[in-house]
């Protein structure tokens, strides 16, 4: 499923959402969220949350796709 708004795009596979510490937090397997205004993305995969530039996250997603 794809959830898309003006500023945020989320592609999901088994998504859970919660609001904590003043931020909306997502938890799932094979997840990515894009913030186009900032050019950064956050993703979670086994090791917890990682914040990277979007171009690096795209490479990670490609590796996950090719591995599975």
Helix content: 10-25%
Instruction: Summarize the main sheet.
Output: 5 strands, antiparallel
Rg over C-alpha atoms, rounded to the nearest angstrom = 12 Å
Q: Give the strand line-up of the largest sheet.
A: 1-2-5-6-7
Question: What is the residue-mean pLDDT, rounded to a whole number?
Answer: 56
Number of domains: 1
Work out the number of β strands.
Answer: 7
Morphology: globular
Taken as a percent bin, the fraction of beta residues is 35-45%
Spans of at least 5 consecutive residues with low confidence: 34-38
Counting helices, strands and paired strands, the structural category is alpha+beta
Element order: H for helix, E for strand: EEEEEEEH
Q: Number of helical segments?
A: 1
Spatial gap, N to C terminus:
18 Å
